[in-house]
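User: Hey, quick favor. My workstation is busy. Could you predict this chain's structure for me?
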Amino acid sequence: MFIYALGGEHRYREPCRAILTEMRGGGLAGETSIELVHEFSHVRYRHGIARAEASESAGDIVGMCPSHTVVRGDIERAMGLWCEHERLDMRDAIFAAQALNRDIDAILSPDRDFDGIPGLERIDPADAEAMARLK
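Assistant: No problem, here it is.
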């Protein structure tokens, strides 16, 4: 979601920007993973953003919402999810495991690979009705 908000033109750009505005204004709360911050920084840098700017943007994410570290139980659950859900890559399996292990029942992502994971509802950032339920 953060990548779309700060990236180039895309159908998710404006909905994700609106979400960040809501979060900054306190109208929407969320949690994230240190792994997401890592991925965000890597993708921004790989797309030609200077390290200092990528680092500053990543710091904004960390300052905006609580960030969870990956622990052994997350990796163990992620490996099971990765094997059970062939569409998931391992990083997304870690995100799903972290949410489930912390009793977080929704994940805000345009990535349909999260669909069908028991106990975890994927909220599409462009789905206004689903977003309204989060507020």
